[in-house]
Amino acid sequence: MADADIIVVGAGLAGLVAAAEAADAGRSVVLVEQEGERSLGGQAFWSLGGLFLVDSPEQRRMGIRDSRELAWQDWLGSAQFDREEDRWPRAWAEAYLDFAAGEKRAWLRGMGHRIFPLVGWAERGDGRAEGHGNSVPRFHITWGTGPGVVAPFERRVRAHAEEGRIRFAFRHRVDDLIVEGGAATGVRGQVLEPDDAERGRPTSRVAAGDFELRAQAVIITSGGIGGNHDLVRRAWPARLGEPPRTMVSGVPAYVDGRMLGIAEAAGARVINPDRMWHYVEGLRNWDPIWDNHGIRILPGPSSLWLDATGERLPAPCFPGFDTLSTLRHLRRTGYDYSWFVLTQKIIEKEFALSGSEQNPDLTGKDVKLVLSRVKSGAPGPVEAFKRHGADFVVAASLAELVAGMNKLADPDAPELTEPALRSLIEARDREIDHAFTKDAQITAIRGARNYRGDRLSRVAAPHKLLDPKAGPLIAVRLHILSRKTLGGLESDLDGRCLRADGSPLPGLYAAGEVNGFGGGGMMGYNALEGTFLGGCLFSGRVAGRAAAQAAG
């Protein structure tokens, strides 16, 4: 006898969306989650809440002319689809782009979702019109950040729970998919002992019993592998160089990738496991929530970027331009870290930190606190990292800065010298003296300030790094930060998981990061940012609706 019409495995954003959509269609749902109730919303809760939208009212108000055609050009230039396995990922990409340029904003707005008026410009690209990157700003920050994205769907799910259409099964860890007669008919696993740890904190894995649940369909929304660094290294592609020996973790340990193997063992196909998205601007969190907790700097374009040996990074490896090109370049250096060198003037204008908890003004919808960002001084969380963070050096002179950097360097790294760094910075600073320059980064800075949003809040006026009026000098040691899985369970446009022969595995669906945010990797090799949450929303909606219709 079935316990519900549909089982959803994973109570992150994609799982909440899928459960809400299925329950809206009148189906009964069991929402299974290995963590406790405090973790409802998963990784999305910790996010900045950025969403990729195309030709939005917010863009038009900021003077940005966008179109579906331009966005598709950017998507294809970034995704670089080149495999037979990209049939469904490409189809998902087209469907998602229609959603992002169409009803996405109105659909969310109808549930009370709101957007901060300044549109951000993420992943500015590799310097080619046909290459990777966003040609225009498209990064729309949710008013309320990650919790503001999760809230409408949590409300819907809890309302259905009160009516009896959705039942929660927290602390239930799925160890096996039940497949009978060639169809997925349920899940089995272990009930973990109660653990009331705060959201994101490690929880007990001690089993207190077994469970088995049956349904007409199972939707897997369990996330990726970013919290399991052994799996990350195992999947690391040769094109990105050797996997790092050390990383900081941008996601909690429960993002463990277990369900990918479990689904594969049941007959589902995993494709593009080598496609992944890790940042190169990671900081060790001075006030961590989970083990090895890393925070990403969302940088403006002005910081001077050096590798561990003191060499300046080449174009297009500028802050905020081309994540994976920069990662690939840095992996060739033989070291797991790099450096930003900047001024107080730059950090005040250009440093933002990823995560809802690092942006209390936006998360708390505090207009007065948001307006304080335009005053002198860096935002409070940034200043806290500057004061307490283990990766920051603040100095009154270049000699003092270099000495501090050498103290933080790896023991086997070449010693940085003040004359070499001074020569590099002075060469860069001379390019500020005139309206002409051969320095591509300075050209990019000046170009960015043509956009009103950047000039107001994201890009400092060009200045000399050695100008005492801009000081003090700051150096930041940057770590590789594990984050997203871009491949995953292959699925058709109904979210149905596919077997190796391309046929659907009856009763089994997937959504969110576990299926590469759509199809098994709708972003291809590169993300345009704002697409992770959006992919969870879209794929969760598709899978929830399709499973509900099939269960009828």
Automatic annotation (TrEMBL):
Keywords: Flavoprotein, Oxidoreductase. SUPFAM superfamilies: FAD/NAD(P)-binding domain. Residues 5-533 form the FAD-dependent oxidoreductase 2 FAD-binding domain. NCBIfam families: PRK12834.1. This is FAD-binding dehydrogenase. It comes from Nonomuraea maheshkhaliensis. The lineage of its organism: Bacteria, Bacillati, Actinomycetota, Actinomycetes, Streptosporangiales.
